[in-house]
What we know:
This protein is α/β, with parallel strands linked by helices. It has helices at about 15-30, 70-80, 90-95, 100-120, 125-130, 165-180, 205-215, 235-245, 265-275, 305-315, 320-335, 335-340; strands at about 10, 35-40, 60, 80-85, 135-140, 185-190, 195, 220, 225-230, 250-255, 260, 290.
Amino acid sequence: MTPSHRDTVLVTGGAGFIGSALVRRLIESxxxxxxxxxxxxxxxxxxxxxxxxxxxxxxxxxxxxxDAKAVRTCFETWSPRIVFHLAAESHVDRxxxxxxxxxxxxxxxxxxxxxxxxxxxxxxxxxRRARCKFIHVSTDxxxxxxGPRGAFTETTAYAPRSPYSASKAxxxxxxxxxxxxxxxxxxxxxxSNNFGPYQLxxxxxxxxxxxxxxxxxxxxxxxxxxxxxxxxxxxxxDALCRVASAGEVGxxxxxxxxxxxxxxxxxxxxxxxxxxxxxxxxxxxxxxxxYVEDRxxxxxxxxxxATVTRDELDWRPAxxxxxxxxxxVSWYLANEEWCSVVMAGGPEGERLGTxxxx
Length: 358
């Protein structure tokens, strides 16, 4: 993506995991302004932006996307040409315990951001408006659960099965409706499970790493047979930049790297890497793996067919899974202080996703 110095890119949720990776890439890749809008909840941390927060092209707005007045002011102030909408509640287990928060942020918040973008772009010149794009970043979980074969495509019917995925599905529908009804230049992306540096340590891969290092039980839900299609976060943000520069308005692009792995195999592979990089006198980390009670309604398998994105946008993941996983483990070993800061007062080591079971 190569906008001129006069362009502004606005990233909602830019202090989160994927958002901060995108912001770091944008700051590196062009000389325009990058504005982060984030409410800095448990999932958003300025520490994740420490390397770019002093850059002259960086700006930060401490705003909750459910605050309509504040969001509207952001759009009026910055008049962005490109919007990447990533702000969302995204943890399935948390959605089981507190679904109302997901409805408010993911559905109502998305409506507010769409309205603010529409209002801002209606008053700019026709030439500039034609160059605007609203990239709505979503998940493959909106498609539900797959059987042993097949993969999600751009035409797969929606079948969300958790409060999280249902709220994201609703936000996708809103984004498309604002395009078809009001002409907002929306593009929707659906990605597979991301991993990499700066991921909040309550997600699966960092949970395995942190639990093993602390000699706690390394929890694997159910029988560990659930399969996810893993995507290195830096490959994801490369794809998002390609969507912004070459994606067709009104289209959907699926982003995945065809890295299907069972959860139990991921846990074992991480423990094997830790055995090599930080061996313990107390024995192999693999011995800490235990099966725990499964998540309610746990989807069995996700897989993405990213053929359209690869062919139409000339995008390919640049990182092999094994090397990216090793790099991720190494990053967490070198950044234990970051983990401690972002998890201060949080539920590390506690089980989420059980609070509303019958």
